[in-house]
Amino acid sequence: MDNFARLLKESWALVEGNREQMGEYFYARLFRLDPALRQLFPADMAGQGNRHLDAIVTAIQAVDDVESFEEYLRSLGRDHRKYHVDAGHYETAGIALLDALRSTAGDGWNLEYDQAWRDTHATIVERMLAGAEADENPPFWHAEVLTHERYGPDTAVLTVRALQYPLRWRAGQYVSVEAPRHLPRVWRTYSVANAPNDDNVLEFHVRTPPGAGWLSGVLVRRTKPGDLLRVAAPMGSMTVDRASERDILCVAGGVGLAPIKGLIEELTTWNRTRWVHVFYGDRRAEDLYGLPGLRELVAAHPWLSVTPACSQDPDFEGEQGDIAGVVGRYGPWTNHDCYVSGSARVVRSTLRALAGDDVAPPHIRYDTFGEL
């Protein structure tokens, strides 16, 4: 496995700097091989290539950990049921992927890399098909919007109820969401911001800053109670280890609060012995939309503390600076289980701070909104 993983990472380094070009080539080749596949994708393909390559990168990063690698692929297979793909579609995608890799890598490509990727794709397909076949849930759930609250011009908190079938998730996981009336076949992942419940109700925190995807804009500005969305199978491993006795550090930037809030809500149902320290940051005080709710939880649970911070608001009475720097000032966190969620910049800087504090990688779980 070590040599196999080395070949994958070496070959990926040849194409990583040209991911956009590779994505364009992949889809052009895919639709040329099977034009009928085009109807499975959104009308506007902008950004679609990056999402496909993000899944490849995640698989490559997990290849050293056999258990994580297999579970990720099984989850991905369950998730892909929403697209109605079959074994033949995966075979066609494999041909297009190899062609795209060869074309993008150029003269640096060799037969060892080619075989490693053939074997990798065969393994990926096998695990994804197994995950899809074993899933007893529907490909997706229809979900009715129950509430929709705006916080400023670019942020909304909404709740939805999954209809017809129970939807089981773990606190800290995320799901794919589609708004079929406004943007058919456009799916994007959002973390579930509440703990599992028997009412089939999920909460989402959505922000649509400049450059954000169209679906986020629809969910913030055009969605209202009574609308119907589609929600696909839960994924993600940023979940609490109940067997651990370590105290917990949670770091949330912006709407990265969503999975952190879900984790805290779950902890309120059983935790009595582990201290939980939450650091919640954004640019300005008005951006900290979730702070009142966090303070209510602090008042009810003595093991919980919340430290808010603003990076661009000198009048804010709490901590000043980027959230990663604030976390660093409060350490050490060496003996904690750490959970980090937010933009790529927030996650990257926080992971550096935790690494500098000698927190072992197995004790860190993170969820990033965008490329890390």
TrEMBL record:
Its cofactor is FAD; heme b. SUPFAM superfamilies: Ferredoxin reductase-like, C-terminal NADP-linked domain, Globin-like, Riboflavin synthase domain-like. Its EC number is 1.14.12.17. Residues 138-241 form the FAD-binding FR-type domain. Residues 1-133 form the Globin domain. The keyword NADP applies. It catalyses: 2 nitric oxide + NADPH + 2 O2 = 2 nitrate + NADP(+) + H(+); 2 nitric oxide + NADH + 2 O2 = 2 nitrate + NAD(+) + H(+). It holds the Pfam family FAD_binding_6. The keyword Transport applies. One of its GO terms (molecular function) is heme binding. InterPro entries: Cbr1-like_FAD-bd_dom, FAD-bd_FR_type, FNR_nucleotide-bd, Globin, Globin-like_sf, Globin/Proto, MRET, OxRdtase_FAD/NAD-bd. CDD domains: Mb-like_oxidoreductase, O2ase_reductase_like. Keywords: 2Fe-2S, Heme, Iron, Iron-sulfur, Metal-binding, NAD, NADP, Oxygen transport, Transport. It is an enzyme of class 1 (oxidoreductase). PROSITE patterns: FAD_FR, GLOBIN. This is nitric oxide dioxygenase.
